[in-house]
Write a structure and sequence with these properties.
Blueprint lengths: L2 E3 L2 E3 L2 H9 L3 H5 L6 H17 L3 H16 L26
Antiparallel strand pairs: 1-2
Length: about 100
């Protein structure tokens, strides 16, 4: 099955999220081994994007929910817990009085 977002094909789950957000995931999640200076610059850029597009978190949450509904419908199938009921024990052998 092919997935297209905004006319572009998303080949992987990561590309799907990036196309839905309009930014690379590394901007929001960071990268392993980044310095404190790199982290500060990345977070400043993320803040600037959120100032320019305050609806982005809502769109991201909506995209995540749509992805969960599409790819993992079994997550929403809930079965009630059943109680084990009363267990009857039966004596085995003869009891000593």
């Amino acid at each position: 099955m092919r997935t297209y977002i905004g006319g572009q094909q998303a080949v992987s789950d990561i590309e799907c999220a990036e196309l839905a957000l309009g930014t690379l995931l590394e901007l929001w999640l960071g990268v392993e081994g980044e310095s404190a200076e790199e982290r500060a610059a990345r977070l400043d850029a993320a803040r600037d994007i959120l100032v320019e597009d305050p609806q982005m978190p809502d769109r991201a949450a909506r995209a995540a929910l749509d992805a969960i509904k599409s790819y993992a419908p079994s997550l929403f199938k809930v079965r009630p817990l059943t109680s084990p009921g009363k267990t009857k024990f039966r004596a085995v052998g003869k009891a000593v009085a």
